[in-house]
Request: fold
Amino acid sequence: MRVSILSALTLLFRALASAAPAPVPQEAVSTTTLPDGATTVLPVVASTNTSVASDQLDDLASFAADYTNSTFNEASSKQKRGGCTLSNLSIRREWGTLSATEQEAYTKAALCLQAKQAKTPSSLIPGAKSRFDDFVGTHINQTMTIHYTGTFLAWHRYFTWSYEQALRNECGYTGTQPYWNWGKTAETGVESSPIFDGSATSMSGNGAYVAGEGNVVLGGNGLPDLLLPRGSGGGCVTSGPFKDMKVNLGPVSLGLTNGTSESNGDGLSYNPRCLKRDLTTAVNQKYANATAIVNQILKPKDVYDFQMTMQGYPGSGNIGVHGGGHYTIGGDPGRDLFVSPGDPVFYLHHGMIDRTWWIWQTLDIQERTGAQGISGTGTFLDSPPSANTTLDTVIDLGYAAGPPVTMRDLMSTTSGPFCYIYL
Ligand SMILES: [Cu+2]
Reply:
């Protein structure tokens, strides 16, 4: 939406349309000017009505795409960019908007990575049997230095991008990394969504129903317990492209539905087992509905608040949209902070994490893609204490992908080595 009057009318109409039962205040909006001079109208407060919030999210995402497109029209910005132009810009899309052919091409490429030999030496990670496992192993090894750290957002951006590159360069995939809009599945229910309905064009469905499951209990380390309900599955995934896949690594810190957790040492040994899921719409609706997503984008004014809100302030009782997505998937390795990339849907979840960051960054692009866009240190909640993350901090994905890069290269999706946006 680039025409301000039209946008204003649309938003006004939506505000009025949602006001049927009782008068509600008109949505607060602000007018923003794009680099090429066009103006756009954006919400400033998330609507508590999730269907209105869903439209707000669409408006914010359109703004971010328009903004990026608009910078391409500026001759001066072209030199700053590492060869990213409108003609080679790739567009990442929501899973449900892909054609059946595109969806099947994506899962076929993921299965191809699972069938290709690992690059990681078995002396380092004995359980890493495939190229897909190279990524899981790297995530396990670095878990304590990439979550609740200054590198969290950028590390996962590079990780997801590298996985997309592996699909393309090693498995003949010609599309882009799709994402999972949590706001949509919160509305429809996860089980029936195009991502999780278990059809041939899905990312595989639920796990088989397991009776007698209880709650997942988060907390520990002196924090109050946080109970998450069980989902509608719990057992092995039985349908769709990944029904026969093997999870080779882990578990390391797998939350079980009896309040305990499970590990297999460091998780690096060979431990083949089925992929389990426990799809949990209630968790999706509580922590990652459209209102939560729009709040995630509109409320935090600095990156510290942005990344803490996203991962959940410890002890707050809120696990954020990041935890919300992971615990909506559930199962094994879905509930394992270390091994979660062992479920291929991880990359759709982290696509949306990255999209959310990208939108938030675009709202104040200079500040949020520069040094001010980094906060935190190199260790989980700074424990043990470590040096601040800076633009010069190096990110190394090990045998999953290369080469090591600095944070500086990861802050923008269009002005460093990356060249993509989201629709
Ligand atoms: Cu992670």
In short: The radius of gyration is 21 Å. The first strand starts at residue 29 and ends at 33. The first helix runs from residue 4 to 17. The pocket of copper (II) ion is lined by residues 139, 146-147, 156 (CB under 6 Å).
